[in-house]
Fold each of these.
Amino acid sequence: METLTLLALSFDALLNLSLLYLAWILLNCEDLLKAIVLFVAFGLLMALAWVRLDAPDVALAEAAIGAGLTGALLLTALAKLRVIETNKGTTQQLKQDSENFQTLHYMTPLALLLVAIGLGYVVFSMPPISAGLSNDVATNMGNSGVSHSVTAVLLNFRGYDTLLEMFVLLVSLLGVWSFGSTTSQHETTPGPVLDTLTRRLVPVLILVAAYLLWVGAHAPGGAFQAGSVLAAAGVLLLLMGWRPGGYLSTLPFRLILVAGPGLFAITAALLYLLKGQLLAFPVEYAGIIIFALETTATLSIAVILAALFLSEPPHSDKEHI
Amino acid sequence: MYFYALIGVGLFSVGLYALINYAHLLRKILALNVMGSGIFLILIALAKRTGETQPDVVPHAMVITGIVVAVSATALALTLMLKLAAETGRAELSEKDRD
């Protein structure tokens, strides 16, 4: 037992120090491509940290979104930026980025050190034992309709957080679309390796997403994790060169985009009219309502995240008629 | 688990430093993401103070929401950066634009 605790402690120390070291290196290295690759590695280490802190749900979300999807978004943006720079002939100017170091006022590191010390003091001045809301969650679990506490909090106890979050996703996609496309992308033919990999992986990813969605009711998993895994399948297809056209850019596509937030908002409005309280699920139907909300949310999250990756608005309907 | 919370403070500070220090917008976006990770780490580490084996799950749910919001904000910020670069040729905010 003694050696096990010692091993766990040294693992924690190693993990923590590598997290801080990676963050420092990735933020201060000259090469932006290297910085992004290090950021993906940082995300994976963060996922390990979540597991160590008994937060497997957060670990799943971090591994799929924080490391995977954000990394893909950053790499695509960097590639597009390089194209823009080459077209504009401004590559040389950006090399001076590291010279901006000297413009820093000497007081800034001092002020930042004070911020860090202040925050550290606040963390240490917290009471060592505080139940938080865990007792409330435990007493109300029976009325939630699911047996996994994180899903109960996300979809039932604090359902309006998730409701608003769905709209944040939708609004950010509308924001991205409103800028129009930055570079035109056409269908491309993938190399044999990517082609085979995608054909094998996409069905597996769809299956994993369905499993995560189903298992979310009683174990780590749920709509966000399932949605992001499904979005990863979409990103793979987009990387392979597939471009949604035709019926995918018309009404059915837009309906899937708004299905998740829409159903959530309608449920909230109906329950408010019937019971006078926003998102107060009746106990006997809570399980079914949560499952329906999670399923549509998964589809919407997946399509919104994949569309954010593509980042160009769908062609107008007229072009395809 | 104060160690993890302390590293969260460290990540936040390192991110804030890079956010102020570098002009390149892609670095600023990376810095904001690192700062976010630091805040998430503080929240989850402090959720373990229940005195039992099961941590408080409300911060867990908040952090999952936060991760999804962070990725959508990152996507929007990257699009803004690309549009700025397409207009000015540089992914930076120049000094004279600030007033």
Note: Chain A is about 70% helix and 0% strand.
Amino acid sequence: MKIYKYGDNVDTDVIIPARYLNAPDEKSLASHCMEDIDENFASTVEAGDIVVGGANFGCGSSREHAPLAIKACGVKCVVAKSFARIFYRNAINIGFPILECPEAVDGISAGDSVSVNFQSGVIVNETTGASFQAAPFPEFVNGIIENGGLLKSLKARGVAK
Amino acid sequence: MGMTMTQKILARAAGLPQTEDGQLIEGRLDLVLGNDITTPVAVTEFKKAGLSTVFDRDRIAIVLDHSTPCKDIKSAQLCAVCREFAREHAITHFYDVGQMGIEHALLPEKGLAAPGEVIIGADSHTCTYGALGAFSTGVGSTDMAAGMATGLAWFKVPSAIKVNLTGELGPYVSGKDVILHLIGMIGVDGALYQSLEFAGEGVASLEMDDRFTICNMAIEAGAKNGIFPVDGKTLEYLKGRVSRGFAAFEADPDARYTKEVTIDLSALRPTVAFPHLPSNTKTVDEAAGKAIQQVVIGSCTNGRLKDLREAAAVLRGRKVADGVRCIVIPATQQIYLDAMAEGLVADFINAGAVVSTPTCGPCLGGHMGVLSDNEWAISTTNRNFVGRMGPTSSMIILASPAVAAASAVTGMVTDPAAL
């Protein structure tokens, strides 16, 4: 696995530029993911890699195409100091794991080997041996994630028909 | 414990006597909005989940405004998906080319947002309707799909920052300068997960179009929503547009705020934001002289009639500088008609600007004004991120309509008072 590390305020326009929103299929979104901030990302990312960001990750446009693009690349999760709120709920709603943990962001460098336990929220930097605890999700949000996203969760509860 | 305006609206929507910071609630929705970029993804999710009916065909709005009139085949195909869904579910408020305008100017104009209502939209600038005392916030396509099916959405009740406004705006200073100044003060994540609640004696002097602009860019400070109290100007705006009952909520005197900031409107200077963040603000005095090649006047932020009047007042009898392209985009068909009736469209064309049909186009680098390499634009839009309006080497300065128009005349960032 590889770490892709970025700074603060990674906006959804750089995650997936608007010029590609006319083709919202996963394959197309994945092929342009991060293009305007890291032109090598889409061609080198592999299943199981982790994206690490600074504060306010995913700010800007509400486009769900952004977490969809990252997820479609096979990225395991995003760890950031904080998330912009629409990106945060979009990731939860599509069942894509995100972890808020400023200490882990400061304690992970590109090239490190990192493991994540989504149940406990524990992030381990296996290269340095350091361990970090991400903020746990509220139970309600966990229910959405465990059901595989918002719509499945609403169907499981019998709210959506 | 006292509640903020937002907390009262969310409490009512959730059927609770009280809500507090951080509480997770499920609230009833008064309106669910989508556009031609976000609706197709919502439709895919809606179908994939095996959903078959919408909760209320009168409480869904679909506006084809981003890539329209369609810029390419793929965009046309996405609009076709929206059209088919709207037809299949007999969506009352479906706006196609000819009726459509930029969604956040169109919905208030059509009376689809009112005080106390809860509105979600699959577009980040849905926070605009807080100007009317509504709780409105941007969400993604899955939330839109769930909202269309159930009429419900989950929310974390936000804490709030109180923004006290004092004084009155001076000449050539507008709502855009207020919100850019505020974002410059608190930063692009200064209100993350929170509501921005505007208050104070300065509110009364702000026109509705200024309040729409201010709430529109609450998201650029990371806020969940921006909201203004309802006053005589709000009620005047709603007259003839909203006939259903609505409820105006005031913040309790003992409502809790994480922070209070004060802005003296009288002291504000025209303010611009340099690349690549809306928080990278300077006064026009500090920025004056920076050369630009394109000017965009329009968008959900600044495409309303007051904006066009302010731009036309600067351009009237003057010419757009050689080497500068000035693009003016009235936000709705009604605004376009009003601008024509007032002679503003003639002012723009006589000055050498182009006037476009309503579209979000250039704001997100879609069409109707995409930049080339290393070009600089001054724009009344809301984001100046890397690559937003063109290649990654292109640059955007955010500004008010008056400053953008003055800059069109000189070809460089210019204080309109200095012309």
Note: Chain B has a mean pLDDT of 98.
